[in-house]
Glycosyl transferase (Candidatus Galacturonatibacter soehngenii), 814 residues
Amino acid sequence: MKYGYFDDIQREYVITSPKTPQPWINYLGCEDFFSLISNTGGGYSFYKDAKLLRLTRYRYNNVPRDSNGHYYYIKENDSIWNPGWMPSKTPLDFYECHHGMGYSVIKGTKNQLASELTAFVPMGSACEINKLTLTNESNVSKNFSIFSYVEFCLWNAMDDMTNFQRNFSTGEVEVHGCAIYHKTEYRERRNHYAVYAVNSSIDGFDTDQDSFLGSYGENSAPEVVVSGQSKNSIASGWRPIGSHHLKVSLAPGESKTYVFVLGYVENAVEDKWVGNAEDGIINRAPAETLLAKFDTTEKVNQAFTDLKEYWNQLLSHFTISSSEEKLDRMVNIWHQYQCMVTFNMSRSASYYESGIGRGMGFRDSCQDLLGFVHLIPDRARERILDIASTQFEDGSAYHQYQPLTKKGNSDIGSGFNDDPLWLIAGTAAYIKETGDYSILDEQTPYDSDPLKATDLMEHLRRSFHYTMEHIGPHGLPLIGRADWNDCLNLNCFSTEPGESFQTFGPSEGPNAESIFIAGMFVKYGKDYVEICKHRGLVEEAKLAQKAISDMKKTVLDTGWDGEWYLRAYDHYQNKIGSKECVDGKIFIEPQGFCVMAEIGLEEGYCLKSLESVEKYLDTKYGIVLLQPPYHRYHVELGEISSYPPGYKENAGIFCHNNPWISIAETVVGRGNRAWEVYTRTCPAYIEDISEIHRTEPYVYSQMIAGKDAPNFGEAKNSWLTGTSAWTFLNVSQYILGIRPDYDGLIIDPCIPNTMDGFKAKRDFRGVTYHITVENPSHVEKGIKSVTVDGTLVESNIIPVAKDKSEVNVTVVMG
């Protein structure tokens, strides 16, 4: 069942019913100011940091009620309705929501009065614009009222939700003309505030929530809206809001447009104390400058055009044309769009991540680089240095850090032993894309301490050596608190029945080992060797190469279980992910990474491993993480077995690592199977089961309930997931086979044998490559010939053109 359709020309997903299975959202913002908006107008806004600089409130665990949002109530006689249906839930005569690239348009019609709300964050400004157009489609005049409504957050979202004894006495506002100023904390900090304004004279306002809603009132029918008259309330302490009242008259066929702006304002340092230092009156000058930029429809329309042009340019760097409409749709639009959103947000702010706990992830952000580095390499460079600055001197790292402060999250801490290797992966991806080795010379702190800094190359050395020097009893890398699977906690024990687990102290171990990290070490160790060679670090390259070769042998000797790769050894040296286990016999992660690392490729282990994945882990909705699921809680395994069978890490379909298997299939040359794995979780290919899948049909989710779950096929945790980067990497670099490398652009497709080929345009190091892939023999993999600008060449590595802006490449498979 569908709840809308793709509009590829406009790059939109058009939702045709407000009653989607879950709120289907979009992200507004590309730089510092961000808003989340659902198809019914729900969502929230923040500046740079969703925890520390939150402008508006959102109430989590309320799905699908989706409260709060930036709402507009329309009252005509006794009828009260909203353009996006929520929160009044008055049935609409017409409804559509168009989620596009950095904007959303919500259209609603009731009683021949049509509304169109366009929401976006303009380039270069810290605000959200809501352009609301009302049109009288009847043959009689209409008189009605509009009431805007936002609920301000008291900046620190966590404190806002918990510290009521203080916060219920801090709310402050000012109202000047059509602008409502949310100045809570200004008296204390005097450097920032929020403004909510409309470009029209108003017939009233409210800034106090109790006055607006009424005692025991609800968002669905605020007392002010029901009565049709604002109270001009001024919040003092308690809960500040922003609401404007506009009385509107429209002749038949007439339209009127209003521009509402929600902005974040920061005074320059020298202006902090402008105003009355004793009574906390704000300096309105910077807000007035901001509002003046968008005080006419013409200015707003130009800002909207500029935003669209930004996305046109951004998405032009990699495009394809094939016989597969859904493939083109995902590669050209939605894959890359989600990669950009995930770059901006990491895992911090969604409808599943509250923006309070996680911040930016060390591992997460490094993986995200793989999907967006070709779009904005300069910001990728900046992100790599930010990530590296949270690393410790021994090569380990904070697992997460706050985007505003760049400080490591001490609540989460470190000890996730895969983290260091991801820095090598991200840096290598950047260098392959740009050829910019100068990033390795950048002086970068440890633990965000400027007094402790070395060049980035030294950070990479310490990353590699951290793994090399933390080896367990079998010669495999120690897992620490966990590896990629944060819920697989193998250094755990319980002293008494019923007690929660504890971790081993340093004197007791821990000794648990990870075959997954071993695969990473081999795969990304190869990149480390190449970078060392380029830097002239001959001895370090030799040392690293020997460590990689030794690790490959160790995996084959102690990490192979006969039909697949083991997952790990626990602290007591028991096997995890083995045929000897009752539950959890086979895991997906090592099958993907060990094959991507080509461990055992010549010996036939890789193909056998992938055949086991297909035999034991395959389902119609994707590949599950493990089988069989854990049916009881295992204290020695930690969190993984705390989930019911079929959910999350306990045999759920983790979309994040399905691409590892698809990439692995291209390593062994099975294009049909790689394609099958790709399409089973690809949003455009599963749009028809939206009533089962439930999350947005235009972006990836982190998890789909596995075959052992009652709700098999139901997705959760949409938008902010490493799935976006890994799947784009899979489809662009391994299935389509257009892969940047240190010395040029590799063309090595591995496609289903039913495809005749495809065309692609790829910008690479200042040159545009027009690539035509032909598959006349309908093979899955293999190159028969490569022609560059009409000349037959021997290699499928296309060197970077030194004196050309465009290059034409034709590849014939065979």
Summary: The longest helix spans residues 325-345. Residues 80 and 627 are 52 Å apart (CA to CA). Confidence is low (pLDDT under 50) at residues 272-278, 494-500. The radius of gyration is 28 Å.
